[in-house]
Amino acid sequence: MLPLTEHLRTLVSNAPGSVAFTGDGHTYLLVGGAETAKDGTTADVRLPGTGRAMPHALAATMVVLVLSGGLDLAVYRHQQDIDAQTSHYLRTYGPRSIFACHQGTLCRLQSAPDGIQVVATRGRPPLAGRRVPLPPSEVQETARRVHTEIGRVLRSLTQAPVGGA
Q1: Is 23 left (phi over 0), alpha (psi -120 to 50) or beta?
Q2: What is the C-alpha R_g of the chain?
Q3: Fewer CB near the last or first residue (10 Å), C or N of the chain?
Q4: Partners of 57 in the beta sheet?
Q5: Helix (H) or strand (E) holding 46
Q6: Where are the alpha helices (H) located in the chain, listed in sequence order?
Q7: What is the DSSP string of 69-113?
Q8: Kind of pairing, strands 132-133 and 20-23?
Q9: Sign of torsion, CA 56 72 75 46?
C-alpha cells in the first residue's frame, strides 16, 4: 500500500485544477484529474464531510481501499429494509481493508471522523446526479487536507512494525 499512497500524494500535489464535491456525508476529491476518467474509471479520495450518509442504490460498482480510520458499511435487501432502518449486513472496515460493492447495491457508507478512503468506480462516478460541487477555494482546501492526511498515513505506515512476533 505504501507505493499507492505515495502515488496518490503526488497526484494530489500536482492537481491544481482538481474537482471536489460533497455528498452523502463525505467530501470527494478526484485523483489525477479528468484524464483518468477517459476509460470510464475514476478514482477519488474520500474524507468525512458535512451532512449525513443516507442509504441509496449505487450507480456503479465501486472498490474501496480504507487508508485510515474506519468505514461502516450497511447493506439493505429492499427499500422496505431502509424504511424500517433494518440492515441485512453490517460491517466495519479498518485501515488497509479493501472491499467492493456492486452497482445497484442498497447501502450506506459512513466514515469515522478520521477516515480516509480511495474509491475507484467504473461507469458513473460516485454520487452522479446527487453531488454538490465545491467552490474553488474549498477545492484547494480539500486538496491540502487530502495531501496532509495522506502524508500522515505514509508516516504511520513507515513507522509501523513489519511482520509478526
Answers
A1: left
A2: 16
A3: C
A4: 106
A5: strand 41-48
A6: 2-13, 79-83, 136-159
A7: S-EEEEEESSHHHHHTT--SEEEEE-TT-EEEE-TT-EEEEEE-T
A8: antiparallel
A9: positive
Give the number of other CB atoms < 10 A from CB of residue 99: 13
**Strand partners of residue 80:** none
Per-residue pLDDT averaged across 25-44, rounded? Answer: 73
* pLDDT 10s digits, 35-77: 455 567 888 889 998 888 899 999 889 999 998 899 999 999 9
Dihedral over Cα of 131, 124, 139, 100: its sign: positive
Task: List phi, psi (to 5°) of 52.
Answer: -120, 140
Question: The C-alpha cell of 64 is what?
Answer: 474501496
C-alpha cell of residue 44:
477519488
**Spatial distance between the Cα atoms of 58 and 102, rounded to a whole number of angstroms:** 7
Instruction: Measure the CA–CA gap between 58 and 9, rounded to whole angstroms.
Output: 27
**Residue 122 in contact with residue 13, Cβ under 8 Å?**
no
Contact yes or no for 45/31 (Cβ under 8 A) = yes
CB 24 within 8 A of CB 53: yes
Query: For residue 145, what is its C-alpha cell?
Result: 487536507
